[in-house]
Amino acid sequence: MTVKELYEVFEARIPAELREEWDNDGLMCCPDSSAEVERVFVALDVTEEIVDYAIERGFDLIVSHHPLIFKPIGAVNEYENVGRKLIKLIGSGISVFSFHTRADKVAGGVNDMLSDALGFTDTEPFGEGMMGRIGELEEEMSIDDFAFKVKVALGADSVAYSDGYNAVKRVAMLGGDGKSFVKDAIEAGADTYVSGTIGYNMMEEAAELGINLIEAGHYSTECAVTEFFTSVINHADPDIYVESIDSNMIKVI
Questions:
Q1: Would you state the pLDDT for residue 246?
Q2: Which residues of 65-100 are buried (b: 16+ CB within 10 A; e: fewer)?
């Protein structure tokens, strides 16, 4: 299967019309669309460490969630980090696909995987663009117990939570940076909202807003998307070798 053929598979599974207007994703880097794809590295981010790893081990393609190119590039040179990565990738014939907000929204993507990891069923979309998910626990829990459940389920290094003085039953979820969806979660009737990052000011206002807030880390709430990307590749061509490692560069002590 060629780079072009595999990209068309992804485009069909994760349509571009799901992408938010402010976003930039898709075919980030493509030295040769007719090149055969035999080895794919799947990651949340295209860090320089991952680029070097892909080059050393002969990968043909990197598929990421966060875009390799997000903001306009003024120059491509060895002194600028994105430009340096592009030079390495193109010189080694490695293509990059990135699927960002469309992978957040798509059925089976980031936020469905997040709700599955937390044990929810019968979830439905909520918020602007219907990006988040909201569902109910089978049994009501305290915020302390639920926060611990989130930490274990996501394998998070740490979880911060703010008590809105509610029992936990109806929970809204959004992987990554979800501070702008707090009001949407309240309007959707959630007593608790889980996201990667929410921010100090919003977390401090939880009780005033009347909602429990849980920050479980940007990486921890989105890293399961690598399994989604892997499943798309395996379905397209089971003979393609796919690899993924923990690419989180942020450590907690």
A1: 82
A2: bbbbbeeeeeeeeeeeebbebbebbbebebbbbbbb
> CB-hemisphere CA count at 13 Å for 94?
28
Torsion of CA 207, 198, 192, 170, to 10 degrees: 150
DSSP the chain: -BHHHHHHHHHHHS-GGGS-TT---EEEE-S-TTSB--EEEEESS--HHHHHHHHHTT-SEEEESS-S--SPPS--STTSHHHHHHHHHHHTT-EEEE--HHHHHSTTSHHHHHHHHTT-EEEEEESGGG-EEEEEEEEEE-HHHHHHHHHHHHT-S--EEE--S--EEEEEEEEEE-GGGHHHHHHTT-SEEEEEE--HHHHHTHHHHT-EEEE--HHHHHTTHHHHHHHHHHHH-TTSEEE----------
Q: Is residue 122 predicted with pLDDT exceeding 90?
A: no
Going along the chain from its start, the domains and CATH numbers come out as: 3-104+223-243 (3.40.1390.30), 107-221 (3.40.1390.30)
pLDDT at 245: 84
Write out pLDDT tens, residues 131-151: 999 999 999 999 999 999 999
Average pLDDT of the chain?
96
Question: How many CA atoms, within 13 angstroms, populate the side-chain half-sphere of residue 223?
Answer: 15
Region 202-224 average pLDDT: 96
Instruction: Flag whether pLDDT at 249 surpasses 90.
Output: no
